Amino acid sequence: MGKRWRKYSNGPYRLGQLNGQAVVTWRDGEGKHRIRLDAWSEAEGRSEVDAFVRKRALLSAAAARTVAEIYQAYQDDREKDGKLIQAFKESWRALSPTFGRLTPDDITADLCRRYTKERCIDQGRSQGTAWTELQRLRSCMNWALKKRIVAFKPDIWVPQKPEPKDRVLSIDEVEALINGCVMPHIRLFVILALATAGRTEAVLQLTWDRVDFDGGIINLRIKPVINPLTKAVRKGRSVVPMNDWARVALLEAQRGALTEHVIEWDGEAVKSIRKGFNAAAGRAKLEGVTPHTLRHTAASWMESGGIPMGQISRFLGHSNEAVTRRIYAKPDTRPLRPAAEIVDLHRKRVS
Q1: I want to staple 157 with a disulfide (CB 3.0 to 4.6 A). Which of 49, 61, 112, 143 is the partner?
Q2: CA 294/CA 169 separation, integer angstroms
Q3: Which helix (H) or strand (E) holds 303?
């Protein structure tokens, strides 16, 4: 039997040995604990106890950080990578009352289910909205685990992702929506979103230097900023023809422009259109309509007008035609017409 080691402790954590191997022992409210250490000598054992204490202190400090603090750090990191964080902020406004003061230890699947119920049933928000918000919280915690800010990933339950929305506005509904736009910048946004089929972000970021009245072109693309610290990957954007409807609206807006941005309000660029758009949709008595509905509507009108899918894909800025077809194309039921007629023929014989 080897020489017994001298007593050594670091706070409540004591060095011991079991069959020649170092162990650390301590007591707390749950009783006595003992964990083997990767050490076989007294000197190594002391060093391992100190390392164990430091690690537990770090984990305790991490566990004490609130979800609000972690999410802010996550948001700041995303911004450094060139991400547009307006959507992150909007998600946090919804998540904060439920999760902000908690620590990651407090997050449970049942809490996430309760949050979904409150958002979808009590507050009338869509399942897709709750899915996006909780998915962003899950991404935040994955990031925190990767950065060793948390010691484990909490159980974040997320509702099933809904099918893509296929809401398409009729001409009468578009007219009602425009009539519901009492603010000029909301009206201009609706017209441009339909005329360019651009994403909300692209339309809001449009600047006058990319509006070519002589060439009849609207350039939704942003020149990439060469920055080795930025890893932003932007969704596809297009350069599209300017139709007469957009030209008239743009000329009117340019006469009163105060900034370089096409969509502006009170001398500043507009970062979010959702509140004003929802108010306009409410006045028009339209349900299930979001700013993205305008892009979907434009693509569907193009398809109904016989525009080839390849051209629609270029207009939308998609990477390939398959993406456009999967999201926007309507099912072609013409090949199934004979089958339906056979059923109808037998029905007539029975009756």
Answers
A1: 112
A2: 8
A3: helix 291-304
> What contacts 88, CB < 8 A, 6 or more positions away?
75, 78, 136
Tell me how far apart the alpha carbons of residues 150 and 73 are, in angstroms, rounded to a whole number. 12
Give 54-118 as a DSSP string: HHHHHHHHHHHS-HHHHHHHHHHHHHHTT--THHHHHHHHHHHHHHTTS-GGG--HHHHHHHHHI
Residues 187-235 pLDDT 10s = 999 999 999 999 998 999 999 999 999 999 999 988 765 555 555 556 6
* Assigned token pair, 130: 């709750």
- Topology of domain 171-223+234-328, CATH: hpI Integrase; Chain A (1.10.443)
Burial label, 191 (beta-carbon count in 10 A; 0-12, 13-18, 19+): buried
Residue 49 C-beta-side C-alpha neighbours within 13 Å? 25
User: What pTM did the predictor assign?
Assistant: 0.62
pLDDT digits (tens, 9 = 90+) for 66-109: 999 999 999 999 888 777 788 899 999 999 999 999 989 899 99
Could you count the other beta carbons within 10 Å of the beta carbon of residue 21? 14
- Neighbouring-strand partners of residue 25: 14, 34
Digit-coded pLDDT (tens) for 240-249: 999 999 999 9
Q: Give strand pairing partners of 17.
A: 22
For residue 291, the SS3 value is helix
- Token pair in block for residue 316: 């939308």
Q: Distance between CA 150 and CA 102 in Å, rounded?
A: 13
Of how many residues is the chain composed? Answer: 351
What are the two backbone dihedrals, phi and then psi, of residue 310, each rounded to the nearest 5 degrees? Answer: -65, -40
